[in-house]
Structure formats: structure tokens, C-alpha cells
Write a structure and sequence with these properties.
The chain is α+β, with helices and mostly antiparallel strands. The chain contains six helices and twelve strands. It has an eight-stranded antiparallel sheet. The two termini are 26 Å apart. The N terminus is likely disordered.
């Protein structure tokens, strides 16, 4: 039985990265071109992360040069067995979500970096990439939803109720940010074990939201995407949620 708890009265507003800080972990930032990562781990591994970011971006950029339309497509592109692993994740996520592969890029990079870090570190790891988060956490974790101009922005957090070794919470907005959206949701957040899928589905559901009344039917669509564990939609002062999550006041 899926459980959802609605948020209580909202608290104070802080930056989303401040909400994510866990006292027992070290925090550091890695930036390369458009990629801007905020990472928490037991050690500062900035140098290794920088190398992994370059590796991931080089794979995507090289593939895009060889495949015209990869960067621009708003529709799914076919799977390619010869593509680099991170591009395969993006292509597969686009097919499942009904989006172009670039709708999955931030979540895919966050997942790639977290998994690489997990191969050399034994503790908790949190990788946030422009609002898309992929993490390994051994204790309950709450991720804030930042919803553009909504009065609920920064005042509600998502806490997964089911334990997974790795988990992703990705958020898309149709009213703020550089990503293209055909909807006007202030925020659509998706929980999945797969970062690329969470990112792509957040975009897909976000495209469905034009008015507040769309939340009622659009929130049910989360169930139609294999691999999606939960989702939240915010538009203005309205919110809808589905899945194994708890919504907490911040």
C-alpha cells in the first residue's frame, strides 16, 4: 500500500544545498563547464571527481558529435549498443519517459559520479547536480523541494520510506532554470533507483502541467513509468504526491 503524508505548516526558507548538509560528511564543490556538483562524502575527493566529470562529459559530447540531433531531440532516440555506458542510460531513460536523451543528462551524471565514488569510499555519498540528487545514505535523508515562485518552495522535503542502497531524487521546473519544459509546474520531483530515469520522468510529467487542476490526473501518471518509486508535483500553492515517501516541513 502506497503511503503519502502531506506537509505540515511550512518553516523558514534556506538554500537547497544547506538543507542537504549532513554533519558527519565533508562537503565540497566541483565545477566543469555547465556541470556544477555539490558533493558530501567521508573524504574530499575533488580531484577524482573532476576527472570523472570530464570523463562523463567527454563521452556525451563525443557521442553527440557523431550523432546529429542527439542534443536537440525532444523525442526518444533508439538504444545504441555501441554507445558509452552513460549515453546508454540516457537513451534508455528517454525511451521509458518519452523524452529526448538530454532530459536525463543531469541525473545520469549525478549517478555516474556517485557510483564511481562508491567504488573507492565505504561511507555515505550525496551528489547534487543542479537540483538532481543521487546518493547512498545509511540513515534517513530528506531532500528539499525548491519550486521556483511557489509559496511552498524550500518549505517541503521528500523523505523516502523504503531503503535502497542507492537512490535518486530529481526535480524539474517549468518556471525557473535553464532546462526546456513545455509545462508550467513550479516543481516536479521524482524518486527512483535510476538517476537518468528520475530526471527524464520529472521532465515528462512536468510537460503535462499547464494549470493547477492538472495535478490531480498528472500525479497518477507516475505509476505508469517502470522504475519510478514516487513523485511530487507543485504548482503555485497546490501539491500532489504519490508513492513511498513522506513530505516533511522544513
Amino acid at each position: 500500500m502506497k503511503r503519502v503524508k502531506r506537509a505540515k505548516a511550512p518553516g523558514s526558507i534556506r538554500t537547497y544545498r544547506a538543507f542537504m548538509k549532513r554533519g558527519h560528511l565533508r562537503s565540497f564543490r566541483v565545477r566543469h563547464k555547465e556541470t556544477d556538483l555539490f558533493i558530501q562524502a567521508q573524504e574530499d575527493i575533488s580531484e577524482q571527481v573532476s576527472n570523472w566529470v570530464v570523463e562523463a562529459r567527454t563521452s556525451i559530447e563525443a557521442y553527440a558529435r557523431r550523432h546529429e540531433g542527439f542534443l536537440e531531440s525532444y523525442s526518444p532516440l533508439p538504444e545504441d549498443p555501441l554507445a558509452p555506458p552513460i549515453v546508454k542510460e540516457m537513451l534508455r531513460a528517454g525511451i521509458l519517459a518519452g523524452t529526448g536523451p538530454m532530459a536525463a543528462v543531469a541525473g545520469a551524471i549525478a549517478q555516474f559520479i556517485c557510483k564511481q565514488a562508491a567504488s573507492i569510499l565505504s561511507g555515505e555519498i550525496i551528489v547534487e547536480n543542479g537540483g538532481d540528487t543521487y546518493f547512498r545514505a545509511f540513515d534517513p535523508i530528506t531532500v528539499a523541494i525548491h519550486a521556483a515562485h511557489s509559496p511552498l518552495s524550500g518549505k517541503i522535503g521528500i523523505r523516502p520510506l523504503t531503503s535502497y542502497e542507492f537512490l535518486s531524487i530529481c526535480t524539474s521546473s517549468g518556471t525557473v532554470g535553464h532546462s526546456r519544459s513545455f509545462g508550467t509546474a513550479d516543481a516536479v520531483s521524482v524518486v527512483s533507483e535510476n538517476g537518468a530515469l528520475a530526471d527524464a520522468v520529472a521532465t515528462a510529467v512536468g510537460n503535462m502541467i499547464k494549470e493547477k487542476k492538472d495535478i490531480t490526473w498528472a500525479v497518477q501518471r507516475f505509476q505508469e513509468f517502470p522504475g519510478v518509486l514516487a513523485g511530487v508535483i507543485i504548482k503555485g500553492d497546490q501539491i500532489g504526491a504519490w508513492g513511498e515517501i513522506e513530505l516533511l516541513p522544513l
